[in-house]
Amino acid sequence: MADNSQTLPKAVVLLSGGLDSTTVLAIAQSEGYECHTMSFDYGQRHRSELKAAENVAKQFGAKTHRVMQVDMRNIGGSALTDDSIDVPTGGVEENAIPVTYVPARNTVFLSYALALAEVIEANDIFIGVNAVDYSGYPDCRPEFISSFEAMANLATKAGVEGHKLSVKAPLMHLTKGQIIQQGNALGVDYSLTTSCYQADGEGRACGICDSCRLRKQGFADAGVPDPTIYQPN
To answer: Are the C-beta atoms of 113 and 103 separated by less than 8 Å?
Structure first.
């Protein structure tokens, strides 16, 4: 059988190993892209997500999978990169930026994705940001995504030469339940993913952090069994 992979449009997909980014990878693949996934070892507490991302990339047959080393612990300022800041377990506060926000993280991640997109001649970057469940994160808003896309087309050789770069955020306006329903329809195995901010060495979720709460509620809202393995009480 002939190999038609050369004719597929290429996309860089930011893949954390979590529920949202895995769904985005499934969407990109379903739209006919040759997917090049990228994860980040940035000093995060929840390092089990890196293994999850590797497993997800293999499951979906990503053309390439890269893990970028970007140590953001030297900057700190987030419960995810600074052990002196406790991971919140009391629920998401409305109209507040959570302490789990990592300063400029999505700007940094998208910049790396943009560099790779130029090198492999991909016109599209996919990211799993969401403004519904994580509305407190400033770098998950549609204004940020559209502004980054505009910058990308000004700051790159590809953009200057007329090869328009697009940043796609297909989950932007979906609830967690809707995201899970869409991924379920695309055959996503969510047991491969991890969302917990403080998973143990075996990748088991704590069940009480804000990310676990949102994930649990999402499966309940979607009417889909939760495959997450939780730590014993």
So the answer is: no
CA-closest candidate to residue 130, choices 218, 35, 60, 199: 218
11 — phi, psi (to 5°)? -140, 145
CA–CA separation, 168 and 153 (whole Å)? 14
Return d(Cα 28, Cα 21) in angstroms, integer.
10
How close are the terminal C-alpha atoms of the chain, in Å? 53
> pLDDT tens for residues 52-102?
999 999 999 999 999 999 999 999 999 999 989 999 887 666 667 888 999
CA distance linking residue 17 with residue 50, whole number of Å: 6
CB 209, CB 89: distance < 8 Å: yes
